[in-house]
Amino acid sequence: MRLPWPWRKAQGATASVIPLDAAEELEPPPPPLSKAGFNDEAIPHMESVYRFALRLTGGNEAEADDLLQETFIRAYRSWETYTRGSQCRSWLFTICRNEFVRARSRISAQIDAVVLTDTTDAEALATATVFQEAAMLDPEKAFFESMIDREVLAAIDALPVEFRETVVLSDLQGLSYPEVASILGVPVGTVKSRLYRARRLLQQSLYEYAIETGYTRRRGRK
Amino acid sequence: MKNRDEMMHCHEALAQLWAYIDQELNPELNERVRMHLEMCRRCYPQYDFHRAFVALLGRVDRGGVPPTSRRRVFERLLEEEARGSAA
């Protein structure tokens, strides 16, 4: 039976005296669900999934909200297929990403069209030299201290989706190369290639930001 | 102890730099890169800078789920639950 928000019967008398306006601002407790383990294993990852969804949608909160709902509904429907005690967060990321691709088929086509090869030594070398000037001029790395989170997130949101999802899973969510490869359904070499290119693009973008804000000057100028 | 002839070249170390920072190298390769970075005054600043860059990415996205979004998920789950019970 469906319980009214905020599941007053389940939460007891204390919750029932909270005015509705105040209850809207509170973090709602998990609802009473019949599928064992879902509240304990899946619900705690809602924050990670929301942040992943928000970056997948390029910072669009309304789309991220929809994506979050669809992810948890699909996870609940197929909860029986999940192996209890395994990597629930990665499982939810996979569902979230699949739902994102399904809902935006043009993105899927775009991903399919991108042919990427493994990182070569030359590419890795180029990546390492993008910020060589800044690295040499900034031994204390104060440049990164000057970065505002929203500028970094905006730079991430501006990446092509195949690079964005890779860097978000690896660098923002802290997953290993094999875990990212499993979620995206690509070889580890492709993850490395996309990740290194994404970082290079981000460094270039933030370098331009540093120039605009007067932190540093373009190469070749004194 | 490895001698200098076994020391990795700069281009080899830089090619592995991101994977080294990400702790994704096998132990042997990881050790060779580490030894090179300890000895090379040209490569170490780049390593240090890129490591700081990756650390920056790891701390920029700490926002929580808006209460309204969380509530909508729970409401949808309860609807799904009710639908399953009725079927």
Overall description:
- The complex is a heterodimer of chains A (222) and B (87).
- Chain A has 222 residues and is an all-alpha fold.
- Chain A is 66% helix and 0% strand.
- Chain A has helices spanning 8-11, 13-16, 20-25, 38-42, 46-56, 61-77, 88-103, 105-113, 121-129, 132-137, 142-146, 149-157, 161-172, 177-184, 188-212.
- In chain A, helix 5 (46-56) crosses helix 6 (61-77), helix 5 packs parallel to helix 7 and helix 7 (88-103) runs parallel beside helix 14.
- The radius of gyration of chain A is 21 Å and the shape is globular.
- Chain B has 87 residues and is mostly helical.
- Chain B contains five helices and no strands.
- Chain B has helices at 10-15, 17-21, 27-39, 43-59, 67-86.
- Chain B starts with 9 loop residues before the first helix and ends with a helix.
- At the A-B interface, helix 5, helix 6, helix 9, helix 10 and helix 12 of A face helix 1, helix 2, helix 4 and helix 5 of B.
Report on the biggest sheet of chain B.
Answer: none
Tally the beta strands of chain A: 0
Structural classification of chain A: mainly alpha
Counted by DSSP, the helix tally of chain B is 5
Shape category of chain B: elongated
Assign an overall shape of chain A. Answer: globular
Task: Write down the overall mean pLDDT of chain A.
Answer: 78
Unreliable stretches of chain B (pLDDT < 50, length at least 5) are 1-5
Question: What is the mean pLDDT of chain B?
Answer: 88
Strand content of chain B: under 5%
Please supply descriptive tags for the structure shown above.
heterodimer, A: 222 residues, mainly alpha, 15 helices, 0% strand, B: 87 residues, 5 helices, disordered N terminus
Write a concise synopsis of the structure shown.
Chain A has helices spanning 8-11, 13-16, 20-25, 38-42, 46-56, 61-77, 88-103, 105-113, 121-129, 132-137, 142-146, 149-157, 161-172, 177-184, 188-212. Chain A is mainly α. In chain A, helix 13 crosses helix 15 (188-212) and helix 14 packs across helix 15 (188-212).
